[in-house]
Amino acid sequence: MPEVSLDLDTEDLARRYEQVSAERQFRGGQELLRELALAPSEHVLDIGCGTGMLAEYAAGLVGPGGSVLGLDPLPLRIELAQKRSAPNLKFRVGNAFDLGDLADSSFDVAYMNAVFHWLPEKLGPLREVRRVLKPGGRFALSAPARDAHSWMHAIRKRVLTREPYNQHAEVRSNQSYRVTVEELELLLHQAGFEIVKLESRTRVRNAAARAQWTPESALEFAEASSFGNFLGHLPAELQQSAREEIKRELESLRTRRRPDDVPAPPPRAQAGRIIAVAHRPR
């Protein structure tokens, strides 16, 4: 089964991510930064910064005496991020598996927002994060939990089992790299962190978000946030037809005219997320 690809991103997907991530990724990221309680003059590392929206927000919190470095492995998203201008904000292409050019004990804070589930191997990146943090430095992550039901991925899986889509090897789903709270607890301890908070949460959609939700907007988010991997394993001529089938099932889900084996999502809740806050021992 092919691995998730970093080569399927496009300028259109990157721009769409910038537009559709505000309600989910950015809102969740703000919640994560509240857990970290960023202070003026702190130096912050954003791993998997995307188009830089949350990093820009963090730069405002640490002020001119602090700094934020945003890393992302997708060059097109870094190009968009670099359009955000602030003296204490920098972006470059990079990823969680190679922080070797960053000095030991050089950051007060590091975080991964909606990133951890994309990492097939997790202990190495966590150990690297610990290395670049100062003694007492704080680390936080937010990621979907493995044991949380995702109705979008349930429908995707259902559609892709049909002809002719099932003739094409499916890219490994982002579900494959998710962890449980218990697994993350073990990983953080193995990496040398002391855990401050570790819990699973269900985020509640506000009324405006529920009103704006459509099958098309849900698909756009899935495609943009997966940087093309959602249906990218299919030939171009099949992607559109698969997309239309998924949209039809999403619409039936919304109106409750759904197949019996596809559960309806709660009207207000989103899938569970793991929130973790830890620090490097002094």
Describe the structure.
By secondary structure, the protein is an alpha/beta fold. The protein has one domain (11-279): Vaccinia Virus protein VP39 (Rossmann fold), CATH 3.40.50.150. The protein has 10 helices and 7 strands. The chain has helices spanning 11-20, 22-36, 53-62, 75-81, 123-132, 151-160, 181-190, 207-212, 215-225, 236-254, and strands spanning 43-47, 67-72, 89-93, 107-113, 133-144, 194-204, 269-279. The protein has a 7-stranded mixed beta sheet with strand order 3-2-1-4-5-7-6, sandwiched between helices. It starts with 10 loop residues before the first helix and ends with a strand. The model is unreliable at 261-270 (pLDDT under 50).
Descriptive tags:
282 residues; alpha/beta; Rossmann fold; seven-stranded mixed β-sheet; 7 strands
Domains counted in the coordinates: how many? 1
CATH topology: Rossmann fold
Q: Strand pairing plus helix content: what structural class?
A: alpha/beta
Shape: globular
Q: State the major sheet.
A: 7 strands, mixed
Strand content: 15-25%
What would you report as the Rg, rounded to the nearest angstrom?
Answer: 19 Å
Q: What string gives the helices and strands in order?
A: HHEHEHEEHEHHEHHHE
- Overall mean pLDDT stands at 89
Side-by-side strand order of the widest sheet: 3-2-1-4-5-7-6
Query: How many DSSP-defined strands?
Result: 7
Low-confidence stretches: 261-270
Helix content: 25-40%
* CATH C-level name: Alpha Beta
The CATH architecture name reads 3-Layer(aba) Sandwich
Q: Assign the CATH superfamily.
A: Vaccinia Virus protein VP39
The number of helical runs is 10
The end-to-end distance, rounded to whole angstroms, is 43 Å
